[in-house]
């Protein structure tokens, strides 16, 4: 092989080597650029995660503040209801006292005793318990627990006996609901309303019904400020009765629909059989 040929090969290899070095440099630059972009993206993702953590913390704090606000609002409403019930108790007591005075001393101006006026309010001395947080989203109503504790402490009975009395009282709610419906029908009130939609004077009658049952069983509901014990028992029983009634109505509707469908099918089959019977036979 001549020197010229060898030189040509060397020159070509040199050019290829130079081109490969250039390509390598370009790839190195591209790789460095990609690494810088990846680093930038990693930092951006970290910043976004930090922002998400901050927002999540702020959201949880806002949720807790909202729960606290709702609790304060419920406490205020409970206190307002208690005040309203106390005023109604005192008014009823004054009316009864005035009626008694008119019957026995019609010509004398006797002012009712302060002890008599305050007796109803003094009897109701136990406020409604706050709900207990089960988790961040749910609260547990512990009014039944408080009623059992009240019965145990104020009636001087064992915890088992207190639980039994409360259980018996809950069982009588079906009769109280029935009596309340009769009372509402006599006053032409809608018995399909939710508990919150029932007139407050009717609710008051229901509370008194419940407390009479409780007194006969030895459960001191009369000590609950604002009738919260009676309210808990009757409202739950009323809601259960409403659900049961709606379920029965739905089942009756489904049954009637099924009966109509069967009757229609039977009529269609009978009509078809009659047409087959009347159709002339072909020889």
Layout of helices and strands, plus pairs?
Layout: H1 3-104, H2 114-123, E1 132-133, E2 139-140, H3 143-154, H4 159-171, H5 173-186, H6 200-217, H7 228-278
Antiparallel strand pairs: 1-2
Helix pairs in contact: 1-2, 3-4, 4-6, 5-6, 5-7, 6-7
Summarize this entry quickly.
This protein has 283 residues and is mainly α. It is built from 7 helices and 2 strands.
C-alpha Rg (nearest Å) = 41 Å
Tell me about the biggest sheet?
2 strands, antiparallel
Q: Roughly what fraction of the amino acids lie in strands?
A: under 5%
Q: What is the molecular shape?
A: elongated
Enumerate the strands of the largest sheet in spatial order, edge to edge or round the barrel.
Answer: 1-2
Oligomer: single chain
Compressed to H and E, one letter per element, the order equals HHEEHHHHH
Average pLDDT over all residues? 79
Helix content: over 70%
Which structural class fits the helix and strand makeup? mainly alpha
How many individual helices? 7
Number of strands: 2
Stretches with pLDDT under 50, minimum 5 residues: 106-122
Could you tell me how far the N terminus lies from the C terminus, measured between alpha carbons in angstroms? Answer: 113 Å
């Amino acid at each position: 092989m001549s020197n010229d040929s060898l030189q040509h090969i060397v020159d070509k290899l040199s050019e290829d080597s130079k081109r490969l070095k250039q390509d390598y440099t370009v790839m190195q630059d591209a790789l460095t650029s990609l690494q810088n972009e990846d680093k930038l993206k990693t930092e951006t993702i970290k910043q976004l995660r930090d922002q998400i953590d901050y927002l999540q913390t702020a959201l949880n704090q806002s949720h807790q503040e909202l729960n606290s606000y709702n609790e304060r609002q419920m406490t205020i409403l409970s206190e307002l209801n208690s005040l309203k019930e106390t005023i109604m108790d005192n008014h009823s007591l004054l009316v009864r006292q005035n009626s008694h005075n008119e019957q026995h001393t019609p010509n004398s101006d006797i002012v009712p005793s302060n002890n008599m006026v305050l007796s109803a309010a003094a009897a109701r001395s136990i406020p409604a318990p706050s709900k207990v947080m089960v988790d961040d989203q749910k609260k547990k109503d512990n009014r039944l627990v408080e009623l059992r504790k009240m019965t145990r402490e104020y009636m001087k009975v064992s915890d088992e006996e207190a639980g039994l009395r409360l259980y018996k009282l809950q069982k009588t709610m079906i009769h109280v609901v029935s009596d309340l419906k009769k009372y509402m029908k006599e006053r032409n009130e809608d018995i399909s309303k939710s508990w919150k939609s029932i007139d407050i004077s009717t609710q008051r009658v229901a509370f008194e019904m419940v407390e009479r049952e409780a007194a006969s069983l030895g459960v001191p509901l009369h000590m609950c400020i604002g009738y919260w014990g009676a309210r808990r028992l009757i409202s739950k029983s009323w809601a259960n009765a409403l659900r049961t009634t709606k379920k029965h109505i739905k089942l009756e509707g489904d049954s009637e629909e099924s009966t109509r469908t069967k009757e229609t099918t039977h009529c269609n089959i009978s009509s078809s059989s009659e047409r087959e019977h009347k159709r002339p036979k072909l020889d």
